[in-house]
Amino acid sequence: MLANYLKIALRNIVKFKAYSIINILGLAIGITGCVLIVFFVADELSYDKFNENAEDIYRICLKAKINDMNLNLAATPAPLAETLIREYPEVKTAVRISPSGNMTIRFEENAFVENRFIWADSTFFDVFSVEFVRGNKKTALADPHTVVLTEATAKKYFGNIDPVGKIMNFEDNTPYRVAAIIKEYPRNAHFQFDILASMSSREDARNTVWLSNNYQTYVKLKPGSNGGQFEKKMPALIKKYIGPQFLAAVGTSFDNFLKSNNNYNYYLQSLLSIHLYSNIDAEIGSNSDITYVYALLIIAVFILLIACINFMNLSTARSSTRAKEVGIRKVLGSTYWQLIRQFLAESIMLSFISLIFSIIIIAVVLPYFNEFVNKDIKFGSVNYFTAIPLIVLLVVVVGVIAGSYPAFVLSKFKPIIVLKGKIQNTKAGSWLRSSLVIFQFSISVIMFVCTLILMQQINYIKTKKLGYDKENILLVKRGWGLGNNINAFKQELLNHPEIKSVGGVSNFAWDAYSNTVYIPEGRSINERYVTWVLITDSDYQKTLNIKMESGRYFSNDYSADSLTCVLNETAVRLMGITDPVGKSISSLPMPDGTRMQFKIIGVIKDFNYEKLNIKIRPLALFYTPRNLVYYCIRYKSDNPSKIIDIAGKTWKKYAGFAPFEYEFLDESYSLLYAGEQKASQIFLIFSMLAIFIACLGLFGLAAFTTEQKTKEIGIRKTLGASVKQIVIMLVNKFIKYVIVANIIAWPIAYYVMNKWIESFAYRIEIGIWPFLLAAIFALLIASGTVIYQAVKAASANPIESLKYE
Q1: Residue 134 to residue 151: CA distance in whole angstroms
Q2: Which of 101, 494, 733, 787 is the most buried (most CB within 10 A)?
């Protein structure tokens, strides 16, 4: 019996070729889009899960409030890890790590700048799961001046030589011994590295200052320990160790500090939550956002839903053309349940054919998809193929739903009614199809509007005036490589007419900024203000065209400028300093009771020195004429390659063997928002895919409608109706659907995007244009889709139309 059902189903698929192709293609594309998104989301949700007992690993973070300035840091003090191991029995082990990008390392003639370089305690391998190729994880980083390399890094330096025991030289000429080789660290980790160096090599790692936060600290709790309960012990630890140092530094007790509406506490962040839920200061890498994951999952559901609606719509539409088939079958003795099984078998077969095509499409496009989203998703991976049973189940469900109308409705009709064809144009069937078309176009418009607003916000961020001019700036990195030759380097560059100015700075928006506490002149020690710090030379402000509000900027003509500072407008406002030029700010007391004092020589206009999702915070700029991280070269040439050549030759002349690294400031700034830009591109592609699938269904439905009106069209043409009049008659119905869909979609899209856009400190005002563009686009697409079928029907010979059926 089943073979008979499948045979008849196959015949019907072949008989109604156009509808079958539209159904199969639409559903195949829908399944493909859905599966690709599921693969992407599964990868995002897999971050850090490869670590053994990952659920027991936590990062310690600092949350503080000091004089209305909030801090949320992924950094903690040097003594924290050892203290946690020593004093808390639930802590199995702990590790400190500290990234140090741009480290130059040399072995014989091979020298490279390593951007994925991390200092780590020897307990690193007890917390994080790493596969060793050579060496012993127990001793790998135990000794000072030892390093662990990944296989690819080892091959880069040593070729086929066994590197274990070999000596590599760091940029300060300190020798480091290769202690072990490990496999590449998994891509789905919230931080990446190519080289690990022993933390015990660093003198600052042994300091006992609890108020200086420079290290990422991770703890691994013993199985069965409760992270929430352990977190509740942090206030006591802070009071015990930070309290005395706080009193010595500030001159007031920690309890009094807390009573003044301030706060200072550690909290635990689950390792498995960092990638998607953490976006705080001092992150070790760039994380994703759970909001995008949710959005993509919703898009996946929408795409599949639209494809299913097409499937159901065309199935319900075509079911009326098979009414006589149902009547004849019932006259010949087919039972109600036999008819149900027949229709369901046909729908499920179409669904499985779509699945087969979808698998083929996925296999073809997956490499390109990986390249686009920067993933390494394997189609044959066991992790991802666990989703296949769910996909198969989903396909069966889709087939059942799509076949439910002909199966459960038509099968109930009496043969005499069915054979007369009286059910062909029921209001119920027409209402169902109309509702489904409106629903799928509402979803398409929502996705399209959201994508347009997202792209507007990203474009706004990329083009917003930052308070400085980022165009025509070449950044030379690793400026400390110039040593004492910085003045000669700058002067020789300025001898070229194409170069206007050269200025040095310690940080840009993609770097982690340090912050400290300053006290304005004449204030009590309790009036402390957290202030972010930027180190520059005398030419930085001029080179980046940052405006001064009052006073002056640093100058090489004033030797005392090393004890001065320039504040931004926000710092002056928050500190409540009137007429700031000539006044001073001071640091917290040092162990001997003295305080560093800095005279304010100028106030600089507020500029966005951090990413635009952070409002401008108080900033203090200090003067250091050499050994800065970046040197900004402002040029006026229309030939950037010439500037690179000039800068490169000058660098080699004064920096010796230090490698020449450069980037353009505007390009680097754009990369800050590469994740958001990629998200907008992904949303755009999948929203266009949803619209395409919706139009595919609309095309089939328009074909069915014109087929149903074949005789009516013939009669109208015979009575003198023009092709234009007939086309308008047929198109009007579908245009109304799209207009209603827009009316439904607009408020939903506005609400969703208004909520999303609130996460940006600087954001656009949502205007009417995205909604109008989406409406016009949907109307044009729907009209174009329907007009093709309408013109085809209206242009037919009326004699042939009147002979139809």
Answers
A1: 10
A2: 787
